[in-house]
Amino acid sequence: MITEHIINQDNDKRVAALHADYDALGEHLDRRGIDIAVIKAKVADYGVAVPSWGVGTGGTRFARFPGKGEPRDVFDKLSDCGVIQQLTRATPSVSLHIPWDNAPAADLNAKAEEVGLSFDAMNSNTFQDQADQPHSYQFGSLSHTNAATRTQAVEHNIACIELGAQIGSKALTIWVGDGSNFPGQTNFTKQFERYLDAARQVYDALPDDWTLLTEHKMYEPAFYSTVVQDWGTNLLIAQQMGDKAKCLVDLGHHAPNVNIEMIVARLTQFGKLGGFHFNDSKYGDDDLDTGSINPYQLFLVFNELVEAEADPDFNPMHMLDQSHNVTDPIESLMVSAMEVQRAYAQALLVDRPALEGFQEGNDALMATDTLKAAYRTDVEPILAMARLDQGAAIAPIPAFRASGYRKAVADERPEVVGAGGGIV
Ligand SMILES: [Mn+2]
């Protein structure tokens, strides 16, 4: 972990300028009828989970280039996630992926306590064969034509729930690679029936206070059809299962130009928005850093979330899910967590009574300008002050680079060649 001294040393260089910027923004927001302290408190309360696999270097279908000091196991991953939380105070929890992160629950709990983290959703893996499993997932898992393969996949999901229950997790995310590569290869209807039947068995094993999250994806690893190809199919699954089943929206899993914020609104309206996998994309499921391509879209998603926030039961899970091929994963995850916070802060600035008035009066220009006025506001002083208040870094990237953490872990962790890449 990084010493407080390193963080304070870097903060000392920036604190005077931050106070000046924060006070100026406070005056500006005050003229708009907004109390900056209220926004800062909400930002400070906000957290986005880090995926354990995100701290390793990802890869593409072409190659994987190992990074320096990559985590060797789940405990190294938790150390790296602890650093992200320490410097940003925006990532209080970690989402584990089983079997990649399999370890005794007591050891996971002890390490999480040591680095100041809790556990978010559990992620099962039935898109990849493990060394000791009798049935292959090459032709699917929960929807496989062979009943024994489906049973094996169901049992794996139940094992994930059992481990999760011992480490304080409250959700299971099922993601499958099931689908087809050729027209005619699979009967769409029978395949989906098999999927629903197997998913039902997992759902029935879920504790009462847990949520089952399913995620849609239109292509990859299957390239002709996937069994959960779009949000419509995903919603059908959640409706078929019951109240504990909800839909996960991965920002990268949509066709180009799809109105994702509207999907968010629809799922919210019917109580089926379970959570997010934040990332960004240019062409397809590129797994690019959150907010790096289309920060306005991210803001519009958060505009819907803030609109729904008034309902106390509305509590979707937020996680980053991206692949880092040319950056230090710790740095990318810190920047991405802050981009999510930024979109949230900007969405909190939307003048909602004014927006509603313009909507009711059919003033399209002023309605959209009301959103833009919030989006144009530079909220960085709010985010930075929220970090400073909590003992984190005003500027996490320079503080991380000054700490020498990456070099220190590179010295003790040998290069990992075969580790799992960024996923789904
Ligand atoms: Mn995802």
Q: Which cofactors or ions or other ligands sit in this model?
A: manganese (II) ion
Largest sheet: 8 strands, parallel
Shape: globular
Q: How is the largest sheet built, in terms of strand order? A: 1-2-3-4-6-8-9-10
Rg calculated over all Cα atoms: 22 Å
**Helix content, binned percent:** 40-55%
**Could you give the distance between the termini?**
29 Å
Number of strands: 10
The helix/strand order is HHEHEHEHEEHEEHEHEHEHHHHHH
The overall average pLDDT, rounded, is: 96
Q: Please give the count of helices.
A: 15
Outline of the structure:
The protein is α/β, with parallel strands linked by helices and about 425 residues long. The chain has 15 helices and ten strands. The strands form two sheets. The protein has an eight-stranded parallel β-sheet. A two-stranded antiparallel sheet has the order 5-7.
